[in-house]
Amino acid sequence: MGFFTDTSVCIGCKACEVACKEWNDVPAKELDLLGTSYDNTGELGANSWRHVAFIEQSRPSTVDLGMPGVRDEQDGVRWLMSSDVCKHCTHAACLDVCPTGSLFRTEFGTVVVQEDICNGCGYCVPACPYGVIERRESDGRAFKCTLCYDRLGDGLEPACAKACPTDSIQFGELDELRERADRRLAALHDKGESDARLYGRDPDDGVGGDGAFFLLLDEPEVYGLPPEPFVTTRDLPSMWKHAAVAALGVAAGVVLAFAGKRR
Fold first, then answer.
1. Sign of the dihedral defined by the CA atoms of residues 147, 148, 154, 155, in that order
2. Alpha carbons 209 and 252: distance in angstroms, whole number
3. Is 169 helix (H, G, I), strand (E, B) or coil?
4. How far apart, in whole angstroms, are the C-alpha atoms of residue 256 and residue 263?
């Protein structure tokens, strides 16, 4: 199960942020005017499991998609809006580094943090290629989107998808969502929106595909997303192998040294 977020129909209402906070009892943040845009959430974090980005570009839209987020303005400015969230990677590095088993893969294929087991070590924070996980300042434990694990167990869709008024956030079986995304991308290309692209949809990418993937209208970097994410623990097996070889070499040297002294 997962998310397909079609940013071409996101209107930036932030209903997803509010629904996420309300259902998951995520603490509110004090109003922080960033001064760079109407996006005052800033980024994903321990207290922001959903983040609606507002990106202002000094270029007119080439295609009128009929939605406020990409409509031409008089001064040739267009808005790109996107509701970001944990990607629930197929190959999740956060799982590899968690020493307590607090992070686990659910029966729905999602990645969840068990708050009562997390010891606050923070290893998962730098392991995430998207910078999603953060430790909460009040107690040091790590928090992120659970894809509303409790709601899934009751046969309900996640709160953010339920609250989205334009179906920008769609929830369902990943194979079905990928087919839907392919059709939407083809439709946008037919309309002339040649910069439209899918992000995180490919199961052969650096993280094995994302459980939460996106249709973007510009380069991933414009939305603050890494262009080529990869599993940050991918080199650990070879590192351990080299470390083991080095340790064996040291041990052999010590043994030979003692053997030489006895002679």
1. negative
2. 44
3. strand
4. 11
